[in-house]
Amino acid sequence: MSDGTEVAQRLGEVRERIADAALGSGRDPGTVRLVVVTKEVSLEGIREAIDAGATDLGENRAQELAAKMQALAGVASHRWHFIGTLQRNKVKLVTGRVALIHGVDSIELGQAISQRAASEGVVQDVLVEVNVSGEASKHGVDPPEAWALVASLAGLPGIRLKGLMTIAPPGSGVASRAAFSGLRELRDRLQGELGGGTLDELSMGMTSDFEVAVEEGATIVRVGTAIFGPRR
Q1: Would you call 6 exposed, middle or buried from its count of C-beta atoms within 10 A (0-12, 13-18, 19+)?
Q2: pLDDT by residue (tens digit) across 74-97?
Q3: Burial class for 207, CB neighbours closer than 10 Å (0-12, 13-18, 19+)
Q4: pTM > 0.85: yes or no
């Protein structure tokens, strides 16, 4: 993994690829937010990304997130996202401290976030994680169950539901596109039933498939390896 000046160059290349994918599908590149995934990246590497203009950083482990947030507290112009599977006993490390939680997949987790947010007097933005591909190894609610979870979360205090997220199957552009278009279509149906305006965000696409995700309507892509190189 490289933490040197290559980070800025790679970050710029990813931004260009996002812009090209957006423009090629008739979209404004400004409607796609890049979350720079910092899993197992050193503080020096993260600072290099921030210096190069990264504003949104993503971590998938609560304790690693807390440590990095503390270490980089004095560095301006960035915000954190939690993008992994959040255990209920780690909710206190994340709620009220991140811009967005990408991955609420049960009402129990939503209730834990709600209770913590209410106790701190904050409102936490969240996304519902949907297992569009139906893979047993993936977290997320099945598409037919998404409406019940969305409706339940929308009624909880201290939570602001912003949209949906998914992870596509590995290794197949066709499968990725099907997953991303499926999430977009599900969002459109749910948003219609909710009366619109509450499910604007679609977090989908990583290093191997973020351009396809942009073409299919992603508003957030989560990219790490293309910026920092392979992790362990």
Answers
A1: middle
A2: 887 799 999 988 999 999 999 999
A3: middle
A4: yes
